[in-house]
Amino acid sequence: MKITIVAVGKIKEKFYIQALAEYTKRLGRYCTLNVVEIPDEKAPENLSQAQMVDVLQKEGQKILSKVPSGALVVTMEIEGRTMTSEEFADYMDTCALNGQSHLCFIIGGSLGLHSDVKSISDLSLSFSSMTFPHQLFRILLLEQIYRAFRILRNEPYHK
Question: I want to staple 87 with a disulfide (CB 3.0 to 4.6 A). Which of 6, 80, 83, 144 is the partner?
Fold first, then answer.
């Protein structure tokens, strides 16, 4: 299976980079992983509605240009569907069984995702109604993908 993660923002902190490297290494035996970082647009605290739309649109265009052709698209959205780890593993398994061997997960910037990006989504997924830092969320996503592969192969890890 191929997994692409398209994420807005660059990881700078060493401890996040180390965690991402560890999960990337672990996932190497289960899938081909490609992480694409999109530069985030400058978004000062007090943006007008028009400025927010402009930032979302610019980030959205960059995201859309990086989505692999033919990939099944999963957008990570706070208002998306929630799943247990087992349900997520089943979802990935069903995708593979239905011939969707390439999943593309999209993580937006601090303002979320533009409607153009949401409109191409095959699944809108939420890990929680809480807000997480984007750098940490990328690690959470990799961990859940790794956990899903372990669940599907009945390998120890998931408890």
Answer: 83
